[in-house]
Amino acid sequence: MTCTRRGAHYCQPRADRVVTFFARMLVHTKGPLVRTAFVLLDWQEHEIIRPLFGEVLWSPEWQTYVRRYRIAYIVVARKNGKSELAAGIQLYMLVGDDEEAAEVYCAAKDTKQAGKVFEPALRMVQLSPRLSKRLVHIKNARRLVDDTSGSHYEILTADAKGELGHNPHAFNLDEVVSQPDGTLWEAMTTAAGARLQELCYATTTETNDPTSFGAELIDEAERIQEDPARAPHVFAFVRKLPSNPDQLDRLHRIFPGHPDLPASCDPFDEANWKWANPALGQFKSREAMRRQALEAKAEPVKENGFRQFQTNQRVSQVTRWIPMDLWDANAREIALTPDWVSARLAGQRCWAGLDLSSKLDLTAWALLFVDGSVLWRFWAPESIAGYLDLHTGGAFSQWARAGWVTLTDGDTIDYDTIYDDIVTDHQRYGIVDVTYDKWSGEPVRQEITKRTRLKMIESDSTYMRMTPPMNELMRRLKAEELAQFGNPVARWMADNLECKSPRDDPDRIRPVKPDRGKSGKRIDGMPALLFAIDGAMRGLPQPSIYESRGLGMMG
């Protein structure tokens, strides 16, 4: 079959080829479907395989159509056939993708874990009359060799970094959550690029460590699933039971009408199981999951394991907080420059929030106006720009050149620049008061008061002070009552924002600042906005009796 469509499109013949390969060349290797043809289930076929292999675009470099996706993330609960599906993909990439001298690898924390993908692939070969004739198994090396195309498929482990191949056609990292760091993934994804249409993909369940490489990868997969334009070359299939109502609302916005959407965040409600377990009732036993749920209810020590592995729910007090579709819906308009709306807001009432960092990092100032408009200023020493460029794809320096960030000379922030800019805003707008983090320091408060006579109100980032403004921010986002005018620095920070709740009271929340020394993430503009919202929630000051009654009525 040939495809006559042009431009970026879904190529049905390409997708049909992979689906047919599974059904005609492969068999299931275990479970109730063992030794039967590997006919993809609806969700495997239509939500993973067809889009992953069928979406194509024209390559000016190679002068042919190539697959759109070069990286894929598949995140589902345990026992949903991740390893068998990965094995089938690897075998297709080895013998079915028309690639000469293909190097195909699967990797995991150790040989035993990597074998969970290799062994199903080997068994599929042994049970296939055609593949068993074509492929040779080199047992000691745990390698499959295709002499016809000069290709091979082998396993790698996290401690084999020095022996990695440098030209992979396909690479699968299994159970990412077991990886100590991202070294292996980075080594293989950066080694790719010399093939016509290579594919690197990661398969995993959820993690309980919010600071791990696994959490970072899963969070990125969720972001891409929400906003595919974020990384058009990356495919994401993420099925997790949400941890809070905001995440639940987000799912219903992204997948309107999907029949398997959860109704709540309750891991023990059977109505919620299908979302994280698309194979439930097909080759994953519902009855077995019921037994595990009963045990988890009876023994609290088992609850976290059930939530993490069976419902793919992150067992952590820290979660991503702002859905970017909500954030983007509150742009109102896209400002072409930082001063785009300054003139029209001149003289209007607003509340200010100040989040002052150390002298070596970012400082943020936010102004929230009565109509919901938000303006920010960001300051940073020029010495940090290169470091943040590494974590923003060079965007940070672009933002600085465009005026969204003010870089001051040297290794530390020039506080006089901050004070001068605040004086400018004080003269331009009607600032009601300034809410600031008490960790900013008394000298800063004194200097701002001295220069502006603005009312300064101390705050902090505790649960007591942060819960009300965070709830108010989410309410405003959902009601589209903010206008952030597409500020790119604020968007980056909103995307980085995580919140934390105490285990005994999930309704209380506060922002979590990332480890500045280990992460390129920054959120400073969000606490500044929350401080400004805190001010707005206190309201405008009561009018003077002279304003309401007039001087002539006194006496």
TrEMBL record:
Lineage per the UniProt record: Bacteria, Bacillati, Actinomycetota, Actinomycetes, Frankiales
InterPro entries named in the record: P-loop_NTPase, TerL_ATPase, TerL_nuclease, Terminase_largesu-like
Terminase large subunit-like ATPase domain ranges (all copies): 63-218
Annotated Terminase large subunit-like endonuclease domain residues: 260-534
UniProt organism field: Protofrankia coriariae
Renumbered residue ranges of the record's region Disordered: 500-521
Record's protein name: Terminase large subunit
Gene3D superfamilies: P-loop containing nucleotide triphosphate hydrolases
Pfam families, per database record: TerL_ATPase, TerL_nuclease
